[in-house]
Amino acid sequence: MSVFVSAFHSFAFLPEFVSYFTPNVALLVCFYWASNTNTSVSLLIPFATGFFLDTLFAYPFGVNSIILCLITYLGMKIPKRENKAVLRFQLAGLGVASICAEVLRYLSLLIIAESPLPSPLVLVYSVIGTLVTWVLVVFLLDRWLVSEETEVSF
Amino acid sequence: MSAAPQTSNLHTLLLLCFICLLSISLERFTNFVNHPRQFVTWVTLGVQRVANGYEDVLRFSGNYLSDRNELLERIEVLEIENEQISALNSQLRALEASNIELREVLGFRIREPMISYEIAELAAPLVSPARDEVTLNRGLAHGIKGGSAVLDASGVFGQVVEALPYTCRVLMVTDKRMAVPVRVERSGLHAVLTGVGDSKHLTLEHVEVTADIAEGDLLITSGLGGTFPYGYPVGVVTVSEPDQAGVAVRVTIEPLAELNRRRYILILTGASYSETAAE
């Protein structure tokens, strides 16, 4: 699903700078799946997904796989969401993780000797886009889902 | 109790990271991962086609809903354009013949371009907003090589940076990593054109303040470097003004290629010149 969403280019009518804020959807999906759901998590799925993203975004074959495996592992280790403090902790953890992910992807471009590299500001935009999307997911979509579950349980 | 699965997860993570690092190293130093990568590319292209299928649906429904009169009008316009292009083509052939004749008279070397094209379709749009690259549906199997020049009907589009068995990645002329040797058609000034990462602007490097360049000038490929054959239009100068220090000119160019709008693109599969000395 994350590959599908990442492959979607429907915002051609928007100004060019908007595309710089495109969130790292695969990273968000893996982190959410590992940290906030009770289903069992297999590292093989982010591993395979990473290879698809590598071909999609033309990165060295394996870079996104490492990132997604590490993010999923981090998500498995991070405390489950129970109160606001944990929510903030998760947001901070995701922020650091997405910065590390962008830096790793940026450095991987050095490996394939593509120079000059794009401006490092692009990393910042992407991290901002990812974190804003995460906040929207947690505070809007997720709350809606929780409230629905609560209604059912009553 | 939970220690065992955690250790197992850690072991799996380490193993997968090792495989990834091995894959990156193999890709960097060998061609070993080309085929697995090509297989994944096929699957990914399928996903991209589905994800962006709405464009095809819109195009198809637009064509389907066009009425007969509209289609006839379009055919008429295309026929007129075709006639004009044919006339220009024959004029061009006559000029070319005359040029060769004059070169022969002057004793110059005759350069006969031998250029072959492969028509490719855009398989995937921009890979990332930070990198102006697209994927085309032609690759090594069709004679495409890394470094091949890519053109569209309006001008220079870019250059192939990676040729896989059935697809290739093209760096667009607007990318920061791209540099094209160009010539100002009016004055004959040579310069190097580079991308700035903006799809609507290009720039010229190291142009002195005394250089003969003005707004509206057409830039064509100079043929230097051997990648792009001579004479293809690249862009039009939109801004030409001295920089703050007053020693160089800041030149902004609008690319002529329709970078985000073309579906079919030409890849030069063989561009060489047979040089024969005129007798």
Average pLDDT for all residues of chain A = 74
Shape of chain A: globular
Q: Would you list the SSEs of chain B in sequence order as H and E? A: HHHHEEEEEEEEEEEE
Q: Spans of chain A with pLDDT under 50 lasting ≥5 residues?
A: 148-154
Return the CATH topology of the largest domain in chain B: Thrombin, subunit H
What CATH architecture of the largest domain in chain B do you see? Beta Barrel
Number of domains of chain B: 3
Q: Could you tell me the radius of gyration of chain A in angstroms? A: 16 Å
- Major sheet size, sense and barrel closure of chain A: none
Give the CATH superfamily of the largest domain in chain B: Rod shape-determining protein MreC, domain 2
Number of domains of chain A: 1
Oligomer: heterodimer
Which value, in Å, is the CA radius of gyration of chain B?
24 Å
Strand percent estimate of chain A? under 5%
In the predicted model, the low-confidence regions of chain B spanning at least 5 consecutive residues are: 274-279
* Cα-to-Cα separation, first versus last residue of chain B: 92 Å
What is the total tally of β strands of chain A?
0
